[in-house]
Amino acid sequence: MSATPSETLPIPVSSPLTHAQKAALVNLVRRAARAEIMPRFRNLASAQVTTKSGPDDLVTEADHAAEAMIARGLQQMFPHALIVGEEAAAADPALRGKLAEAELAFILDPVDGTWNFVNGLAMFGVIVSVTRFGTPVFGLLYDPVMDDFITAEEDGPAQMTRATGRARPVSVSHGGEIDSLSGYMHFSLMDRAVQEQLAPLMPRFGRVGSLRCSCHEYRMLAQGHSDFLLSSTLNPWDHAAGVLIVQRAGGVVRMLDGRDYNAGIKTGYLLAASNEASWQKLAELFSMLVDDDPA
C-alpha cells in the first residue's frame, strides 16, 4: 500500500527513494494538481496574478497554493529534509544556498511555465527533484493536463507513466550534425551581449525555439523529440529533475565548461544533448560563451 503524506517515511541516505516513497511523492503532486492547479487553469482573475522580477515573470494563486500543499506533505513525510520551493526561495533567497550542503533536499516548481498557464496554454507542469548534496538522485516531470509523468532515479531508467498507470522507458534521439539538430535555447533570458553572440548561430540549426516551460522541454528531450537544450538561467527548480531524467534516458548533460551539474551552481551555461558526440559539437559551437564567462 502506498504511503500517505501523514506517515513519516525513513530518510534515504545512500540509495534513491523507496518504491513507497516515490509513490507517495507522485500521489501528493497529483492531488495538488487536482486541488490547486487545474481548477484555476483558464479561470484566473487578474487579481490572482502578480509579477516578480519582470512583466513576464508571473506568479499566481495556483503557484502559491500548490507549493504550500506539496511542501507541507513532503515535510510530513521527510521531517529532516530541506524543502526548497520556487516561491519560498523567492521570499528567502538563502534557501537556495543550502542545497549543496543538504544531505537530503526536495526542490519543487509548483507550476513551471506560469506564463503559459496564465495565458491559457496547456503547456505547464510540476517539477520535483530530490538531491543529495546538490546532486539529483530522483526527478519527476509531471503534466497536470494529461496526468502523466516522467521519472528517473540515479541508478534506473527514465520512464513515462500514463494516467492509466502503464509505464514504458523513454530514450533520447540519436543526435546528429549541427544542421540537423533541433532544440531549445533560453535566448530571451540571456544578456543582450550573449544574444548578439548567439544570434548568428541560429540559422545553423534545424530548428531552435523555446516552450517557456522547462518541464516540457526536458520531457521532449528525454523522449527523443528534440536534441539539445542550452540555458544560462540555472534555477534548480527548473533543471535538477530534467538533468537526471535526460541522463537516465541516455543523454549527456553538463555545464558548458565541463563541470558536472549540481543544484548549488548559480552561474554558467547548462548544455543538455542527446549523446556525447552531439554534446561535443554543440560545446565547440558555443565555446565563446565559456571564454567570455567571468565565472
Automatic annotation (TrEMBL):
Record has RNA-binding as a keyword: no
GO MF, any single term: metal ion binding
Record-annotated membrane-spanning stretches: none
Keyword terms of this UniProt record: Hydrolase, Magnesium, Metal-binding
Coiled-coil intervals: none
Cofactor(s) the protein needs: Mg(2+)
Presence of keyword Magnesium: yes
Positions that bind Mg(2+): 86, 109, 112, 238
Family annotation (InterPro entries): Inositol_monoP_metal-BS, Inositol_monophosphatase-like, Inositol_monophosphatase_CS
PANTHER family the UniProt entry points to: INOSITOL MONOPHOSPHATASE, INOSITOL-1-MONOPHOSPHATASE-RELATED
Family to which the UniProt record says this protein belongs: Belongs to the inositol monophosphatase superfamily.
Name under which the protein is recorded: Inositol monophosphatase
Taxonomic lineage: Bacteria, Pseudomonadati, Pseudomonadota, Alphaproteobacteria, Rhodobacterales
